[in-house]
Structure formats: structure tokens, C-alpha cells
Amino acid sequence: MPSRQRYLFVCTNRREDGNPKGSCAQKGSEQLVKSLKDALVKRGAVKAIRACSSSCLDLCEIGAAVVQEPDHVAYGNVTLDDVDEIADAVVAGRVVERLVVHRPAGA
Predict the structure, then answer these.
(1) What is the CA 107 to chain-centroid distance, rounded?
(2) What is the chain's pLDDT, residue by residue, as a tens digit (107 residues)?
């Protein structure tokens, strides 16, 4: 398996309609994965950074969720409008602070 510097795990879990938690897939996350992959290709970063789909990250109630590793941060309410900012930040080794909904204690 190729080793990369960073990973973006995008929750694409889909729950049944009417579930009170909702699901990331219902909030556009399937398109987010595709768009993040395209954005990383445009930046020439696919050998260093990988965007991939994930099953449930337990964050669906806060909108489409993305976890950036090894930074151990979770982004919430991510939309297609955020893709370029996330791609630029991950390439630079930064975090998009305005999207952070969870980070490890002391980080």
C-alpha cells in the first residue's frame, strides 16, 4: 500500500430517510469525495495526499463530515464550496479552522 503524508476520510454513510441523525451521503458527501480527489489532482498532490470515502464517522448530525489525518481533526458541515480551501490547506499541511468540529485534547 502506498504511504501518504495525509488522508482525507469523507463519510459517505447513508441512513434511511427520516432517521433523526440524517446521514452524510444525504448531505452531499458522495460528491465531496469526487471533488476533493479532483482538487488534489489539480494541485499535483495525489502521491502525497489521498481523499477517500469512509463509512460512518459518527458525525452525521453535524453535516457532511471529513476527518483529516494525521492531524486528527474532524470537519463538519462541509460543502462543495469548501473543497478548494480544504485542498489548499491539506497540501500546505494546515487545517481549515473554521470547519473544525473536533480535535484531540491539547492539540
Answers:
(1) 19
(2) 667 999 999 998 888 888 777 778 888 889 999 999 999 999 999 999 999 999 988 887 788 999 999 999 999 999 999 999 999 999 999 999 999 998 877 66
- Beta strands per DSSP E along the chain: 6-11, 49-54, 66-69, 73-75, 100-102
Sequence-ordered list of residues with C-beta below 8 angstroms from that of 46, at least 6 positions apart, any chain: 37, 40
**What's the CATH number of domain 6-102, 3.40.30.10, 3.20.190.10, 3.40.640.10, 1.10.760.10?**
3.40.30.10
- Closest alpha carbon to 78 in 12, 15, 6: 12
CA-CA distance, 74 to 81, in Å (whole number)?
Answer: 17
pTM of model > 0.85: yes
- Cβ 49 vs Cβ 90: under 8 Å: yes
Cell of 106: 491539547
Alpha-carbon span 104 to 80, nearest angstrom: 26
